[in-house]
Amino acid sequence: MSTKTDYFEYVLDGKGGYKPVEDTQKSPKGVTWIQINYSNPEHKNWLKSEKQLPKLVCSVLQQVDTRPKTTVVDDGLLIVLRSVNLNPESNPEDMVCVRLWLTKDMIISSNNRKLMSISDVIKKLEGGNGPINTADFFIELTYQILNYLYTFIDGLEDRIDSLEERALEQITQEIRVELAELRRQIIGIRRFMAPQREAISRLLLEKLSWFTEDDRLALKETSDRMSRVIEDIDTLRERAMIAQEEVQDRLAEQMNNRMYVLSVITAIFLPLGFLTGLLGVNVGGIPGGQKPAAFIVFCLILIILVVLQIVYFRWKKWM
Asked: Quick check: is 265 in a domain?
């Protein structure tokens, strides 16, 4: 197979470390971990050539787009998980998907984009304090995925706190755009977290020989943490929605105030415009047309009319 960086093959030594398969003389003692890139043609051919893998497993390991799910095949676990996308120039809500085939003696992980959680598991193995078996690997991987989710959600909370403070000071188009983007990210994350919680929770009910009672307790803790993540996401979604509604209400209020001012001005100048238009027609018989003081008298009448209108509007509490 390919020796590119998107592929590796390790053997967990059962003590928290690992060794390349070459160092085990091709007869590894421990759990073999194979990482592939399903978009790589060589890796696809390798999956097809592995006669020991069930057809369903080969199919899921190279699916382009799939939601989190759990499937037990014999004594093996086929599970799909997603984590926030922290790759450069990527949207976090465009979550990276990792497909896993887990048995007592083998781990196959498949994805086509870098997943920081897998990198963290490798670092732990390099430090000698990594997973010792398949169940430990799965629990450690889900733990790392949740850590990045928590970090991302903390960042979203800071963003919405800042937007709420800025919205109290002044409403701008920038705030509206940022709130819309924030809601889009929250919805994108929430879309996959609910089925991911169900996928992990379902695993608690499955009977796998290589899953001990201690592993189930650790997995239950992971499931509970996932539930708290979803609760935090729902809270953020509600806060973002309320903040966006508040912004829209204040913008509508500002618009109504402006329209009100324009309506008052229109109401004041409407009779003035009628009078000036009526007396400005170019026909005979206009009152005072031949008197020098008529213009001054007419202006005084208009001023008095404006004052009377303002007094009336204030009495009616229209202004």
From this structure: no
Residue 310 lies inside a defined structural domain of this protein: no
pLDDT tens digits, residue range 50-78? 878 888 888 888 888 778 888 898 889 99
41 CB neighbour count, 10 Å cutoff: 9
CA distance 148 to 110: 19
Q: What is the pLDDT of residues 90-132, one digit of tens each?
A: 777 778 889 999 999 999 999 888 888 898 999 999 898 989 9
243 part of a folded domain? yes
Give the gyration radius of the chain's Cα atoms.
35
CB 38 within 8 A of CB 112: yes
Count how many domains the chain has.
1
CATH code assigned at 202:
3.30.460.20
Domain residues for 82? 8-251
